Amino acid sequence: MSETLRVNPIACDAHGLCAELFPEWITLDDWGYPIVRPNPVPPEMMEHAHRAVDACPVLALKLEQAAAQKRVRSSR
After folding, report:
1. Which pTM value belongs to this model?
2. Around Cβ 5, how many Cβ atoms within 10 Å?
3. C-alpha–C-alpha distance, residues 10 and 62, integer Å
4. Helix segments in the chain, DSSP class H
5. Strand residues in the chain grouped as ranges (E)
6. Shortest CA distance to 20 belongs to which of 59, 48, 62, 60?
7. Which DSSP category does 35 fall into?
8. Which pLDDT belongs to residue 72?
9. For position 22, which CATH number holds?
């Protein structure tokens, strides 16, 4: 099952910890808010993704099922 990182821009306070922990997938904009790659996180990088999600002080970063999988499950 593939998962995608999502950030809640309303909840995010731009601490930048996620980008420090997972720079391969998360960069920061000019104001310090995360820019997350939209594609699913590869299995070999999931440990880093979970670490970034767990470290978010305001719980603004989440892992979600990839959109393609959501569509397949909802059409059954």
Report:
1. 0.81
2. 23
3. 13
4. 17-21, 46-55, 67-74
5. 3-7, 26-28, 34-36, 61-65
6. 48
7. E
8. 47
9. 3.30.70.20
CA gap 8, 4 in Å, rounded: 13
Burial grade of 1 (CB within 10 A; 0-12, 13-18, 19 or more): exposed
CB 13 within 8 A of CB 49: no
HSE on the CB side for 32, CA within 13 Å?
6
Return the pLDDT at 66: 74
Q: How many domains does the chain have?
A: 1
Domain of 67, in residue numbers: 3-74
Decide: 21 and 51 in contact? Cβ < 8 Å: yes
* Ranges of residues in the chain whose predicted pLDDT is under 70: 1, 67-76
Angle at 68 between CA 22 and CA 20, to 5 degrees: 5
